[in-house]
Amino acid sequence: MTAPMMRFGAIVQISEILELTSDSPEREWLLYEATDDQLVELNNYLNSINSISDKNFGKEAIDAWMAAGEVDFEEQIIYTTNMKECVKDIIKKMLNDQEYIDLGEMPAFVKEELNLTGYILKIFNQSDKYNLIFDVKNLPPNDDGQRVNANTDPKRDPNDQIIINFTITLDSDYISNSTDLSVARTIIHESLHAYTSYIYQEEMFSNLSNSLRTLLSANNNDPNTAQHILMTQQFVSAISNSLESWDNSSLVNHEYYNYLSWSGAMLGTTAFDDLDQNTQQAIEDANIAEGSALSPATGQAQGTNNCN
Ligand SMILES: [Zn+2]
């Protein structure tokens, strides 16, 4: 598609489907900056879609490209321009992982379906209103002045108030300090933050939403605290099993996946304090060994460091 008329034809078609006005920045970008490959990819995508969700994603894709990001049309995931290949590889492996795992308190039909992160990413893929964006940047310390490995931030799309973008941001130092095993665990953990927020918005009366509501009112409506307590109550084995499944059960000591399933603010909960002393120590040791935003992985690490 090098002839100008073909470019223009594709742009007209894309603009019609996405209802782009002729003076919109997206239309300008399509006309003057989009590559032929991008036009072909977007046009093919839009010709194959059948829902509002897919259409909305088409718009998000243009915005992502305008910001020099990368678009995975098949999984409907956007990677910002800061994203690193090694992290993308970890996410892609999660998406392809079809192992069955135990999802704890979740309904039986879910248990039988997919791994946790695969399942969560699929929800976002199918949703009309929610998009998932992965980013890497230097994260500021939290309110307690501690470095954080990652965070998940839901925000309304500036161009479309109906759409909520969940941006999962991994700290740059964390990425270069840590093993793939740690990064995979953190992606599972962060996708759970996105998942619980999503369920709370979309399935108000589900068991999960009821549990979260109770925890919110007991914790000054702080979603972060409530979600971490919920993780300790309902998702420890799901995180552990998802991680083990992602890692193809390669570790001799399977307990290690359990240790790593505890991370970040989960270690500040009473549920953590209630674990026996040896387990607490093993969890802290595993988290230090695999690396964090604060310090590099050690010789004790079980995973490999691919991102430095
Ligand atoms: Zn967290």
Report on this model:
The protein is an alpha/beta fold. The chain has a domain at 1-70. Helix content is 54%, strand content 11%. It has 15 helices and 5 strands. A 5-stranded mixed β-sheet has the order 1-2-3-5-4, with helices on both faces. A hairpin with a 2-residue loop joins β4 and β5 (160-171). α1 (4-18) crosses α3 (36-48) and α10 (207-218) packs across α11. The longest helix is centred in the middle third of the chain and has 23 residues, at 180-202. Mean pLDDT is 88; it is low at 108-114. Bound molecules: zinc ion. Zinc ion is lined by residues 189, 193, 228, 264-265.
Architecture blueprint of SSEs:
Layout: H1 4-18, H2 25-32, H3 36-48, H4 52-66, E1 70-72, E2 77-79, H5 85-96, H6 108-111, H7 116-126, E3 130-137, E4 150-157, E5 160-171, H8 172-177, H9 180-202, H10 207-218, H11 223-234, H12 236-246, H13 255-261, H14 270-273, H15 277-289
Parallel strand pairs: 2-3, 3-5
Antiparallel strand pairs: 1-2, 4-5
This protein binds zinc ion.
Q: Percent of residues in beta strands?
A: 5-15%
Described by strand count, sense and barrel closure, the largest sheet is: 5 strands, mixed
Helical content stands at 40-55%
Instruction: List SSEs in N-to-C order.
Output: HHHHEEHHHEEEHHHHHHHH
Please, how many helices?
15
How many angstroms separate the termini?
A: 39 Å
